[in-house]
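Input:
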Amino acid sequence: MARKQAADYEQRREAIVDHAARLFASRGFLGASVADLAQACGASKSLIYHYYPSKEDILFEVMDSHLLQLTGAVETVTGSQAPAERKLRDLTHRFMGLYVGAADRHKVLLNDLNHLPPERRAMIVTRQRALIDAVQALIAAVRPDLATPRARRPLTMLFFGMINWTHTWFDPKGAASSDEVAELAAELILGRTR
Amino acid sequence: MARKQAADYEQRREAIVDHAARLFASRGFLGASVADLAQACGASKSLIYHYYPSKEDILFEVMDSHLLQLTGAVETVTGSQAPAERKLRDLTHRFMGLYVGAADRHKVLLNDLNHLPPERRAMIVTRQRALIDAVQALIAAVRPDLATPRARRPLTMLFFGMINWTHTWFDPKGAASSDEVAELAAELILGRTR
DNA sequence: CCTACCGATCGGTAGG
DNA sequence: CCTACCGATCGGTAGG
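Output:
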């Protein structure tokens, strides 16, 4: 028989990850203590350790959940029949939407990766690399002039630089929307603007 | 009369900052202890505190020294008589050169700014903003088509995203040189490639 | 699910 | 009497 406590087990786990994302994003992984997290969750430290074996496991969960969303966007877009240029624009908008919608998790993924233990870090890095490779294939298809064998990776990373760096400055309440920023980044990569 | 030991005072201070940059870059400000720093310098903690009143002062020095270099590059370039496009290309190359040459300090500046006490952080942020404004003026001059009032800041930040993000992936021993990457970033902003 | 704790290590400072 | 510097240890707090 199922136990009663199992009913909100997943909700509690998710709430912990959500508060952890907020704390880690604002203070850094080392700057936010498990006691801080417990307080934010309105619980004791022991409760946290009931749901997760270690602070690093919570960090992994924050990153993993976000990366899952990003990977989903890539699969959706690359599975379509649209031309490469359309796919790249579409994916850029989806990425920006996820970056803004999950800004805390995104910051944590970008800032605290080296606080994961090696095996966990390797898992994340492998999946990040798959994301990058998918985008690189689109960019190579759209910009055969620039994406020479030696420039292909740098070009792709400059693209990720544009959109990943938004976490440091983009304000959802600011003048420009995330779609406008995504469009601008796509235009720059596509080189269609002159 | 000058004391003999004062002769290497500045050298020792600089050595501390240099080791701190390396440690903070690889483990983060909170992940590297003053004891680690002392060990890296082959000295005692007390020696560190003889030269700097606190760990945060060392962090400030790491960032300040790097920002001074970047500001110098901006002044050199904007003071020339070259056309805006030439200035932007030139500045992009100089930035990339400084980013690679002072990779540790650059990482620290980008990753650990929020571990500075508020007043110190405000000083750094103010000077960063001046850098950004100077680049924005060049971009606005070069791309009047894209740099509408509302798109001006996002466009500038996308540019900084391209070059700042290089600290996560660029390898000086890799296939592409920092000048090639700088050129690619400049091309994308200039939109001259199609 | 909490209070009460642990081994260790933190940034910073004492006397000499 | 100064400066530069050391070994040892301070009061608090970290993850668990």
